[in-house]
């Protein structure tokens, strides 16, 4: 059973990430099309799962709602925020379900980040060892 996610906490993280909270009513979120709004932003609402857990749905609105949707996912899946953003049946295309990430998901994200950074880390270590050798007077002739 997933942990409860609260609307105001999710909205706070998104606002801190630079997104605009449109503060739409739940009726407007369910009937309006996302492209009708002139400003790119988001709105959150509560969602109850079939097992009774209260989660949050974040919807993207504005002329570029697809990009806003991607920004919502990117912001909430940061390691220090620890949410997982997924699509759920019954939600519109511009909406995403927000829930707490499991430890397995967080570990998989850490491994993926380490794999992406591995070439850079190897290059930095090689550069540091070359620099240490030069400082010790062991520079190459050619």
Features of the shown structure:
4 helices, alpha+beta, 142 residues, four-stranded antiparallel beta sheet
Descriptive report:
This protein is of the alpha+beta class and 142 residues long. Helices cover 43% and strands 18% of the residues. It has four helices and four strands, in the order ααββαββα. A hairpin with an 8-residue loop joins β3 (83-86) and β4 (95-100). The longest helix has 33 residues, at 103-135.
Secondary structure category: alpha+beta
Provide the helix percentage. Answer: 40-55%
What is the radius of gyration computed over CA atoms, rounded to a whole number of angstroms?
A: 22 Å
Order of strands in the sheet with most strands: 1-2-4-3
Overall shape: elongated
């Amino acid at each position: 059973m997933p942990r409860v996610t609260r609307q105001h906490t999710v909205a706070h993280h998104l606002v801190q990430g630079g997104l605009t909270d449109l503060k739409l009513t739940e009726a407007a979120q369910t009937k309006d099309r996302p492209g009708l709004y002139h400003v790119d932003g988001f709105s959150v609402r509560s969602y109850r799962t079939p097992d009774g857990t209260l989660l949050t749905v974040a919807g993207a609105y504005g002329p570029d709602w697809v990009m806003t949707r991607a920004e919502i996912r990117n912001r909430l899946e940061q390691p220090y925020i620890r949410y997982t953003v997924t699509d759920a049946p019954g939600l519109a295309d511009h909406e995403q379900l927000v829930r707490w990430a499991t430890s397995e998901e967080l570990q998989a994200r850490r491994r993926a980040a380490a794999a992406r950074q591995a070439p850079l880390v190897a290059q930095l270590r090689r550069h540091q060892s070359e620099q240490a050798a030069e400082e010790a007077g062991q520079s190459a002739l050619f």
